[in-house]
Write a structure and sequence with these properties.
Blueprint: H1 10-19, H2 32-57, H3 66-91, H4 97-106, H5 122-143, H6 149-177, H7 181-200, H8 212-217, H9 225-243, E1 253-255, E2 260-262, H10 268-278, H11 282-295, H12 297-322
Antiparallel strand pairs: 1-2
Helix pairs in contact: 2-3, 3-6, 5-6, 5-7, 5-9
The structure holds benzoyl coenzyme A.
The site of benzoyl coenzyme A has 28 residues, from α2, α5 and α8.
Organism: Flavihumibacter stibioxidans
InterPro entries: Aromatic_CoA_ox/epox (IPR052703), Ferritin-like (IPR012347), Ferritin-like_SF (IPR009078), PaaA (IPR011881), PaaA_PaaC (IPR007814)
Protein name: 1,2-phenylacetyl-CoA epoxidase subunit A
């Protein structure tokens, strides 16, 4: 028996596929707004990975041992790889890498709010790994089931690497937490400064999120901002006990009836301020990205010239083969 529903319009056919968990692929018909939403989300995600290299890259030369240096280099390199998978996934939707980069540099496209905060000392690298990568994984694991095939497939690989990142961050903090009094203070101070920005990473609360309802209907997003944030708070409120540290929130308390931790009110004014370009490091981050892009122009030109030479050479060979 044919159980497929009879789709009348392209929109209905599309929604029916989404409802049946059939992945949408680049050549499939899709509503223009779905395509635009994906370009916005995937490119902003890619930009976050690339900008995220800056605060961490800053600590490669100052990592306290060879092992820490090697691990941090590997992590920062992974972020570059994540950016590249994501730019490639977005390109399948008909936008070029150059256009996306222009949107980042001109301020038209956003990147994660979290990377507009400074990394002041080594403990911050631990806190980023544990809290920032932890929040990123919480958000990204459901994206492995997102409705757009190339995005979902990129996320599977990214999530595997992110879980290594989170563990290395936790291990840095665990080491500090067992160290001297000064090291314990560094650890607590980093947690205090990164906690609130980390829970802002999930985005505005559901009732203030303009995109969530439609993105959930299209199964681009699988779990809402508030639900993910709550899951993250529940996990971290337990893990912080292993470090013998605390989270800087007096309202944090287990709520037996809800089966979740209650937590304090997020400073949404700070969030909107940071994402509209006025956080502590926004200008510095964009200036660093633009400088890197301009300084890398000769590499792009050399690579294009080399590709052109190869093309001409292989063209010559082909002609010989034909002759
Ligand atoms: N920062 O309606 P909403 C990482 C914007 S880092 C900045 O909820 P949506 C990593 C949002 O874009 C994590 N902007 O939107 C890398 C929208 O503005 P526009 C990166 C934010 O898209 C290196 C407006 O607020 N992860 O992985 O449905 C080292 C309204 O929001 C933020 C991703 O990007 C924010 N935190 O939901 C370590 C995951 N939150 O675009 C780690 C993929 C919201 O209309 N993205 N905005 O101008 C997503 O899952 C979703 O896009 C979000 C936002 C949950 C982030």
């Amino acid at each position: 028996m044919n159980t497929e529903s009879v789709a009348v319009t392209p929109e209905e056919h599309f929604q029916d596929k989404v409802n049946r968990e059939v992945k949408i692929e680049p050549r499939d018909w899709m509503p223009e707004k779905y395509r635009q939403t994906l370009i916005r989300q995937i490119s902003q995600h890619a930009h976050s990975e690339i900008v995220g290299m800056l605060p961490e890259g800053n600590w490669i030369t100052r990592a306290p041992s060879l092992r820490r240096k090697a691990t941090l280099i590997a992590k920062v390199q992974d972020e570059a790889g994540h950016g590249l998978y994501l730019y490639s996934a977005a390109e399948t939707l008909g936008i070029s890498r150059a256009e996306m980069i222009d949107q980042l540099h001109s301020g038209k496209a956003k990147y994660s709010s979290i990377f507009n905060y400074p990394t002041l000392n080594w403990a911050d690298i631990g806190a980023i790994g544990w809290l920032v990568d932890g929040a990123a994984i919480m958000n990204q694991v459901p994206l492995c089931r997102t409705s757009y095939g190339p995005y979902a497939r990129a996320m599977v690989r990214i999530c595997k690497e992110e879980s290594f990142h989170q563990r290395q961050g936790f291990e840095i903090l665990l080491t500090l937490s067992k160290g001297t009094e000064a090291q314990r203070r560094m650890c607590q101070d980093a947690i205090n400064r990164w906690w609130w920005p980390s829970i802002m990473m999930f985005g505005p609360s559901d009732d203030a999120s303009p995109h969530t309802a439609q993105s959930m209907k299209w199964k681009i997003k699988r779990i809402s901002n508030d639900e993910l944030r709550q899951k993250f708070v529940d996990v971290i409120a337990e893990q912080v006990k292993i470090l013998g540290m605390t989270l800087p929130d007096e309202a944090l308390a287990w709520n037996e009836a809800r089966g979740h931790y209650d937590f304090g009110t997020i400073n949404w004014e700070e969030f909107w301020n940071v994402i509209s370009g006025n956080g502590p490091c926004n200008r510095e981050r964009i200036a660093a990205r633009i400088a890197a892009h301009e300084e890398g122009a000769w590499v792009r030109e050399a690579a294009s010239a080399f590709a052109e030479k190869q093309r001409q050479r292989s063209g010559g060979k082909d002609e010989k083969a034909v002759a």
